[in-house]
Amino acid sequence: MRPSRPHPALLFVAIFIGTFLLHIPWLQLPYFWDEAGYYVPAARDLLLSGTLIPHTTVSNAHPPLVMAWVALWWKLFGYAPLVTRSAMLMVASFSLLGVFRLAQRVANTQVAIASTLCTALYPVFFSQSSLAQVDLAAAGLTFWGLSEYVERRWSTAALWFSLAALAKETAILAPLALAFWEAVRLGGLGTKWRVLRRDSEPGSGRNYGRSVSLLIPVLPLILWYGYHYSRTGYVFGNPEFVRYNVAATLNPLRFLLALALRLWQAFGYLHLWLLTGAMVLAMRLSPEKDGEVERPRIAIATQMIFLVVVGTYVTAMALIGGALLARYLLPAIPLVIIEAVATLRRRVTYWPAIVAVIAAAFVMAWFWNPPYGFSPEDNLAYSDYVTLHHDAERFLEARYPMARVLTAWPASDELTRPWLGYTTRPMQVVRIEDFSLEQVISAADFRQNFDVALVFSTKYEPAHPLLDRWKSWTDLKRRFFGYQRDLPAAAAAQILGGRIVYSAEKNGQRIAVIEIEKAEILDAQNFDAQNLDAKHSIERSPHTLHR
């Protein structure tokens, strides 16, 4: 008799309750970085005007599935960060159910429980679970597609992969990689690779149909891009978006550097090395036995499928994408976790204890920032950013309600869009690109046009960086990855001719308000804020357009 399995609906409810409870402290935070810069404005435009193409932000040509989901929740329950984050936790729970389903089908229920727990607690997945962004949704739908694929349900697999591509265009990588893999197995390597096939694998005629079915998800993506072109005049996002994510990344040296970083993110980032390292060590042990039978491993054919998908994402995300964000690898990392957990169960007697230690290390990484630069959205450092900005901008609004504020994106959006949750009314903003020495000196030339400056760290800076002590590495980051060093607030105040009236710092991130001292205050009518804003709007495009 087959052991009973929990009903998927009950399992989903259990996952959602657990996930919701873990995220309660952060559910009412204002929107963070790319949420505020693109995804929330795009969903809000859809809610208010019914348009799939955003008009309050420059369109990146991202498919609209996730934005439509968020807009639906706002329509039903009202516009609020709590509603937004609850909607995304529903998506995260559904994604975790997909991880459980996939792990259960390729291994067993024990591996599925442990893999789902590790995935849920892994810092990048945990932090992304409540953020209104598209990568986790695309990953979750990909897991459901893979689950159907390994069961050889081609039509339903094509459906899930199609939905994943409509969540984010890069999700098309998984079905394309699998179609290529099927073509390789079907080609001249059929007899040589027979060990990779299941005993019950269909004949070659079915294999051709399988490869074709994996190309079906391309069709809805083509339709979306056709619609986007008809409305905007460009296909793959605005020209700056394409330049930043494709044209500017096609350099052999940059690719090798990005590939090394992507491999680290896939196998070692934020304590993931503990799990993959334990897997490598466990491979030296003999398989455990249940009675007289060795514990089974994940089928070699399935392991090859996982390897193809992980390898495709690591390579593709090293080749394209101006920002090397870890969330871009969310469709790949849970596959690594499933494989590692299955290996530990097969070869280690007390494998649950090892998994428990690794899960605890993942939780520690929610709060612990590594000794190298990383994106604050990869753990709870994003909440530090939001808290710092919320407090500073409320101070700014209360003390200088009519002031013209010099700042950079995304604070410029936070100050001009009260519906992002930082201020109660829009403020006048003068935008610069960042707070590098060059930008601050440039801003000092027109200091008569702003009254205060809001300066902040545009990236996490560890107190004792692990790699930045080598000048060559810093130079490579500047050349290929847009790295720049923000001036300290005191230095910015000296250059701008002002004094610091508010400052705060938390876990490697900082913010300050600088009041500009002037011999003569010009009338506001002499300054056309809109023209200056237009002059500098293109300078923020690499930040707002690359996600």
Description:
This protein folds into two domains: 8-368, no CATH class; 381-545, no CATH class. 57% of the residues lie in helices and 7% in strands. It has 24 helices and seven strands. The protein has helices at 8-23, 34-49, 65-77, 81-106, 109-121, 123-128, 135-150, 154-167, 173-186, 204-213, 218-232, 239-245, 252-267, 272-282, 300-319, 333-347, 351-367, 381-399, 411-416, 437-444, 471-481, 489-496, 529-537, 541-545, and strands at residues 289-290, 293-294, 404-408, 428-432, 452-456, 498-506, 509-516. Strands 4-3-5-7-6 form a five-stranded mixed sheet. A two-stranded antiparallel sheet has the order 1-2. The longest helix has 26 residues, at 81-106. The chain is globular.
Briefly, what is this?
The protein is an alpha/beta fold and 547 residues long. It folds into two domains: 8-368, no CATH class; 381-545, no CATH class. The chain contains 24 helices and seven strands.
Q: Which sheet architecture does the biggest sheet show?
A: 5 strands, mixed
Low-confidence spans: 195-206, 519-546
Strand content: 5-15%
Structural class of the secondary structure composition?
alpha/beta
Based on CA inertia axes, which overall geometry fits? globular
Subunit organisation of the chains: single chain
Give the mean pLDDT: 88
Q: How many strands in all?
A: 7
DSSP helical segment count: 24
Distance between the termini: 49 Å
